[in-house]
Amino acid sequence: MVSLSVVVITFNEAANIGRCLDALGDVADEVLVVDSFSTDDTVAICQARGARVVQNAFAGYVEQKNFATAQACFDHVLQLDADEVLTDELRQSIQQAKANWQHAAYALARLTNYCGHWVRHGGWYPDRKLRLYDRRLGRWEGLLLHEHYEVGPGHTTGALAGDALHYSYHSIAQHVSQLNKFTSITAQELALKGRTRVTLFHLLLKPLWKFVHGYFLRLGFLDGFAGLCIAGISAWGVFLKFAKLKTRTERAEA
Questions:
Q1: DSSP classification of residue 166
Q2: How many domains is the chain built from?
Q3: Do 19 and 135 reside in the same domain of the chain?
């Protein structure tokens, strides 16, 4: 049986972190929270539940998650977001992996709650992410956004049974606000990669395809109003990303 550090990075997650930590059960041999100097009750909530809290200024998701992984007491790490909750089935699957560790990393499925509705279509489920890993055999990679855990060459990955419940957006306003933030970061990331050419294809056809793909081809309509909101806002996000990239490029060339 390997020992496991559960690691969570936080910033002003008082509304979520207690629920996340309470659902860990007995899977964690250590609970580590790396906090970016929250101004709410996040730290107090974590400490009241016995978590070890380390403060570290946020320099990016990849940097913060690699820093948090390095601070863990044990080499085997389960990395969670503050708005994620383990189900009973997933906890049992993690315990089985601890007892018979076979891979460099394991993926878990996320079931997302959007404005009170559990989303099972539109490409949002099962949304598998590598989150349980041996830190000696991989690391977090990426630029500014869309960070992912990547195992070293020659190593295998497995899959865990059960879902992590992902409490993503409590309101449409929150979704739009987050989208505005993330599209700005994504536009910056594209510019860093040298992808600065923006045409009507990017501004019109790609957003339309995003909607059609999510709402019709990936059956987002089966999620009712939530599915329509997700498809529409996601399409708007594609437009925003390229519109921001275009204005960013034009300013740089002026």
A1: E
A2: 2
A3: yes
> Do 184 and 61 sit in the same domain of this protein?
no
Q: Region 128-134: what's the mean pLDDT? A: 98
Give the Cα separation of 143 and 190 in Å (integer).
10
Share of the chain above pLDDT 90, in %: 97
| Contact of 126 with 110, CB cutoff 8 Å | yes
Q: Which residues pair with 165 in a beta bridge?
A: 85, 111
Instruction: Name the region of 195 (left: φ>0; alpha: ψ -120 to 50; beta: rest).
Output: beta
- Domain edge (last residue) among 114, 144, 169: 169
Q: Check residue 145 and give its pLDDT.
A: 82
CA distance 176 to 105: 33
For tokens 């909607």, name the residue. 211
**Could you give the CA distance from residue 111 to residue 151 in angstroms, rounded to a whole number?**
24
Q: Distance between CA atoms of 225 and 28, rounded to whole angstroms?
A: 38
